[in-house]
Each structure stands twice: as structure tokens, then as C-alpha cells.
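R.M. (postdoc): so does anyone remember the format we settled on? I'll just put the C-alpha cells first.
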């Protein structure tokens, strides 16, 4: 039984996907959510994990590229497959570079599902058949293991804090929940980031995180 999860902000479409998957004997949908924050909370507090997560690209709170990059760093044993209406090579490149193992056009979900699962579980990359002529270089562009520059001296907690501040629209109470710390603890991270790099607000966090590969965001 292959455990899967769905991250899709359009509820009716998401429920339709759940209905499709409920008819497949070898698949179990362990949860379906509307955005990346909900997914991260589920993963943080769940006793079971999906093997594959289908992720929409354009979502509120945390877009699919930022979420995929987050998952590739914090949950490397979970495979991510992009699920999108975009038939655009830039979007494929964004998702594959962020760590996705596949890309399916939403209207082709049921048709390509089995092949996509088999391909990804075999540790290969699956791209929707609409892109058969796509440059093979894009498929090899999986740069999710970015190494921070030598002069960046961040603790794991500080990096995680920056990642959530810059890559999501979560407020500080939600960020504290994800990080399993008290909200007051975040003040220590803010103070440290200010002292080290003169980062004073979320705009500066976003700029710094993008410059140093801590987050990825979609080109929308």
C-alpha cells in the first residue's frame, strides 16, 4: 500500500482527486490539505508519513516551489510530485530544481498516475507526456542540496526560522508551532539575526534567504 498526500487549495478539485485515488487498490490517502502550512503541521504531528506528496504550485501561504524545497531538506525520504495547470517549462524547472521528482498536468492526473508513481519509486523523474520534447538538461537540474556560503553562520534553528519567515505567510505564532518552540523564543532568533547580519524585518529575511539559497519561490 502506497501512502500519499495531496496539497491543493481548490477544495472541489482536491476532493475529486481523493475520490479518484479511493478507487485505486494500492493507494491510501493519509491526508489532504489546502496549503503548505497545513501539510507541515500534519507532518510534524503525524505518526505516519506519506511516501509521495502531490503538490500544487500556485497556493496561498506557501507556494509549491517553496514547499517542495522545504520538504526536500526536512523530509528527504518523501517524494514530491508537482500537480499543476501550468504547461510551462519554467514551472517544471522550478519544481525539479526545488527537489520534485515528477510533474503532472492536472487534467492528466488519472491517466498518468500509475506511471508517475512507478517512475518516482524507481528513483527516476517523471514528466508529463505533454513535454516529451523538453530539453533533457532540465530533468537533471535537481539542485536541492544547496550548500550555504562559508561566511553564513546560522544555527539550525535560525536557518529554520528564516526559512519559514521568508518562504511562508505564516505569522509568528504559527511559525513557533511548526518549530515546536514558545513564541517568545523567536525573539532570540530575531535578535541573533539582527546582530549577525542586520536583519530587522521579514522583508530583510526574504532577501537574505533568497540570496543564500535558504528558500526557493515560484516564478509566477
Amino acid at each position: 500500500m502506497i501512502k500519499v498526500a495531496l496539497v491543493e487549495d481548490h477544495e472541489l478539485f482536491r476532493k475529486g482527486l481523493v475520490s479518484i485515488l479511493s478507487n485505486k487498490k494500492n493507494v491510501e490517502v493519509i491526508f489532504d490539505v489546502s496549503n503548505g502550512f497545513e501539510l507541515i503541521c500534519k507532518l510534524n504531528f503525524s505518526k505516519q508519513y506519506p511516501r509521495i506528496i502531490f503538490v500544487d504550485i500556485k497556493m496561498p501561504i506557501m507556494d509549491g516551489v517553496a514547499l517542495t524545497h522545504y520538504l526536500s531538506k526536512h523530509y528527504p525520504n518523501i517524494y514530491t510530485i508537482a500537480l499543476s495547470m501550468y504547461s510551462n517549462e519554467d514551472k517544471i524547472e522550478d519544481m525539479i530544481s526545488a527537489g520534485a521528482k515528477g510533474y503532472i498536468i492536472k487534467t492528466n492526473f488519472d491517466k498518468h498516475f500509475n506511471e508517475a508513481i512507478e517512475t518516482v519509486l524507481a528513483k527516476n523523474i517523471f514528466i508529463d507526456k505533454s513535454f516529451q520534447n523538453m530539453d533533457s538538461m532540465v530533468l537533471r537540474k535537481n539542485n536541492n542540496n544547496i550548500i550555504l556560503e562559508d561566511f553564513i553562520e546560522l544555527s539550525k534553528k535560525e536557518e529554520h526560522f528564516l526559512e519559514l519567515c521568508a518562504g511562508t505567510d505564516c505569522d509568528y505564532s504559527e511559525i513557533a508551532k511548526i518549530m515546536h518552540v514558545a513564541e517568545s523564543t523567536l525573539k532570540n532568533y530575531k535578535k541573533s539575526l539582527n546582530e549577525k547580519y542586520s536583519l530587522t524585518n521579514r522583508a530583510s529575511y526574504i532577501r537574505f534567504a533568497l540570496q543564500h539559497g535558504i528558500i526557493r519561490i515560484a516564478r509566477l
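R.M.: ...and that's the designed sequence above, right after the C-alpha cells. Also worth knowing: The radius of gyration is 18 Å. The CA atoms of residues 22 and 68 lie 24 Å apart.
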